[in-house]
Amino acid sequence: MKILKRRPRLLILLTLAVVAAVTATVVMVIQANRMTTLSPREERDRAASGASVPKGQADCRKAKCIALTFDGNPGEPTDRLMDILREYGAPSTFFLEGRRIHEFPDVVRRIAEEGHEIGDHTWTHAVLTDVSDAQIRDELRRTARAVAGITGTEPTLMRPPQGRTDDRVSKVSKELGMAQVLWTVTAKDYETDDTALITRRVLAGAGRDGIILLHPLHKGTVPAMPSILKTLSEQGYTFVTVSQLLAPAKAEPGKIYR
Predict the structure, then answer these.
(1) Residue 13: pLDDT over 70
(2) Is a pLDDT exceeding 60 seen at residue 103?
(3) Predicted TM-score (pTM) of this structure
(4) Is 102 a catalytic residue?
């Protein structure tokens, strides 16, 4: 009888031990796959003591900087957007899809010539966490080569579509010499054409060292830009590219910034 009474207790203890072991394993897996992101300020703090930013460039250790970033192909209305950015003296970062770059070489060339930065947004806007390593490499490499074919320079920054990344994406990005850039503010302009709403969302989320995500091909976005730029300027922000936001440090290939 004593043996029978002990058996349920042993089974309970054994079950608890198994649950504890499984839980510990899950926690270890989650920790191992947790993606670490770096803020612009953290990256600047990693720069060598006494390092300086390039002449004529804002020093975001002192200035109240913010980076505007635009995702998509370089089709119309990108030219209109650049007219507005030039009016407000707002260098920005364009993460371009590669599949239609060859249709708009003059626009791509203008982006580079007017002091904006070009990043890689893959060839077909594939969700990189859902494809093979070989396809990740192809998506990024094809776009980088297409950009270089027009501007003479390959991108050193990339943005994974939907912001979805993992250890494999980081590994391939590092191999290709690209850092990953996410964002701190999105207007979700892909969900609405309401210019006033897009403006409110951007301004509500804006902050020093922020990275704003917008999509110029959506109807409400470009019309929102004058109000966004005017208000942020009045609030004392200095507009910079992502690389300028990190200076005097440089983005490290494979790392994730936001």
Answers:
(1) no
(2) yes
(3) 0.86
(4) no
Q: Which of 116, 121, 209, 215 is catalytic?
A: 215
β-sheet bridge partners, residue 70: 94, 214
- Contact between 247 and 57 (Cβ < 8 Å): yes
Nearest to 70 by CA among 186, 178, 152: 186
d(CA 112, CA 95): 12
Q: What is the DSSP track for the chain?
A: -HHHHHHHHHHHHHHHHHHHHHHHHHHHHHHHHPPPEE-HHHHHHTSPTT--PPTTS--TTTS-EEEEEEEE-S-TTHHHHHHHHHHTT---EEEE-STTGGG-HHHHHHHHHTT-EEEE--SS---GGGS-HHHHHHHHHHHHHHHHHHHS---SEE--GGG---HHHHHHHHHTT-EEE--SEE--TTS---HHHHHHHHHHH--TTEEEEE-TTSTTHHHHHHHHHHHHHHTT-EEE-HHHHHTTS-PPTT-EE-
How many angstroms separate the CA atoms of 204 and 202, rounded?
6
pLDDT (tens digit per residue) in 219-252: 999 999 999 999 999 999 999 999 999 999 999 9
Q: Which of 45, 71, 133, 189 is catalytic?
A: 71
* pLDDT value of position 35: 79
Using CA atoms, how far apart are residues 120 and 101, in angstroms rounded to an integer?
11
**Residue 215 known to be catalytic:** yes
